[in-house]
Design goal:
- The protein is α/β, with parallel strands linked by helices and about 325 residues long.
- The chain has 2 domains: about 180 residues, Gcn5-related N-acetyltransferase (GNAT) (Aminopeptidase); about 140 residues, P-loop containing nucleotide triphosphate hydrolases (Rossmann fold).
- Helices cover about 30% and strands about 25% of the residues.
- It contains 9 helices and 13 strands.
- An 8-stranded mixed beta sheet has the order 1-2-3-4-5-6-8-7, with helices on both faces.
- The chain is elongated.
- Bound molecules: coenzyme A.
- The site of coenzyme A has 23 residues, from helix 1, strand 5, helix 3 and helix 4.
- Coenzyme A (COA) binds next to helix 1, strand 5, helix 3 and helix 4.
């Protein structure tokens, strides 16, 4: 049967009207837990059966050895199915008492994800599935990570649903994703994040700190500041450019997302910076440099190892200028 799979302890199949009684009992018994994150309705299975289509599918997870229990381990809904060059969907799920917390639902969800990526007509031939999870829902996030989903992003006020306070409201959600090319995935695998580095250069007093701080906020990257490092480097007056730099490169190397690096370098430090960026895992030719030029007669000039964006810091950057600089840095760091 399409959209069905059998595992060691559970099996998965589409909902039918024969499931109504077990579903009513399962949802009623689990109401106290489900109500933290959804609006459980023990009577809505007929509506769910009627709405099955190519853009909305449900999967019921059944225990293969239910004993005297109702047998329904959980339900997975796959909605917002978009085909074409997207082949993506969103996934929601509930585990029911007395099976929640026993690992049975995880086994079922693994079978479902396999069906989402399996070729048609047995599966849905998707490329990508996402699970949106409230940050306070550690159990659901732990389950997603146990299947190898990775945290891809954060969506503000994403769904109008209850949270643990029982009130319906717009709730922030974290986005966890899986791609067909990742599947079958290693449990709890690390997230291969994209790393971005941006250098901020300029003569002392050129306003680098202000620009670097604003850029880090706009780009959502950590800020690595030579001034902050200098405070902790003994005997660094006059500044030990190499010592401060080495510390910055080691911090950059350890950052999983990269950073905005505000350093004291001048054009003559190009070799040192080139080595540091390379050691931190970046190709210096693709690291954008935002060069702060206070006077517009900056004879030192930028390092120019990669693309240079020069900003005139005689006046504070306007929000529009800041965004333009950040976008130029983003474009430069994304260029092949
Ligand atoms: C979220 C929910 C479906 C999880 O079901 P469950 O039955 O607890 O899941 P399982 O027992 O099968 O858990 C399996 C895996 O998740 C992991 N996990 C569960 N809770 C965890 C936590 N708090 N932190 C880390 N990992 C956790 C388990 O360790 C296990 O992985 P392992 O086999 O590697 O140890 C269930 O708690 C539920 O119905 N919650 C209410 C509704 C809900 O939140 N729906 C999802 C909305 S996004």
């Amino acid at each position: 049967m399409p959209f069905s799979a059998v595992g060691d302890r559970v099996e998965v199949r589409p909902p039918t009207l024969a499931d109504v009684e077990a579903y009513r009992e399962a949802v009623t018994r689990s109401h106290h837990r489900l109500a933290d994150f959804a609006v459980p309705d023990p009577e809505n299975l007929p509506a769910i059966v009627a709405s099955q289509s190519a853009v909305y599918r449900s999967f019921m997870v059944w225990s293969r050895d239910p004993g005297r229990e109702h047998g329904l381990v959980g339900r997975v809904n796959v909605a917002n199915v978009v085909r074409g060059s997207f082949r993506s969907a969103t996934m929601g799920y509930d585990a029911y008492d007395p099976y929640a917390g026993t690992g049975l639902f995880a086994e079922g969800l693994r079978l479902v994800v396999g069906l989402l990526f399996a070729p048609e007509p047995e599966g849905m031939a998707l490329h990508r599935v996402e699970a949106n999870i409230q940050p306070v829902n550690g159990r659901s996030a732990g389950l997603a990570r146990s299947l190898g989903f990775v945290h891809e992003g954060f969506s503000r006020d994403y769904l109008h649903i209850p949270g643990p306070d029982g009130r319906r409201d717009w709730r922030d959600h974290d986005r966890y994703t899986m791609l067909a090319t990742d599947w079958p995935a290693e449990p709890y695998r690390p997230h291969p994040r994209r790393r971005t580095a941006v250098l901020v250069s300029g003569l002392p007093g050129a306003g680098k700190a202000r620009v670097a701080t604003a850029l880090a906020a706009e780009l959502g990257l950590p800020l690595l500041s030579a001034d902050a490092v200098k405070v902790g480097v003994a005997g660094s007056s006059p500044p030990d450019v190499v010592g401060v730099g080495e510390t910055l490169w080691r911090l950059l190397a350890d950052s999983p997302v990269g950073a905005v690096v505000d350093g004291p370098w001048q054009a003559r430090d190009a070799d040192h910076v080139q080595r540091g960026l390379t050691a931190a895992g970046f190709d210096p030719a693709s690291v954008p440099e935002v060069h702060c030029d206070l006077t517009c007669v900056d004879t030192a000039g930028p390092l120019a190892l990669g693309p240079v964006v020069t900003v005139d810091t005689r006046e504070p950057l306007t929000p529009r200028q800041l965004v333009a600089v950040a976008l130029r840095a983003r474009v430069a760091s994304s260029s092949p």
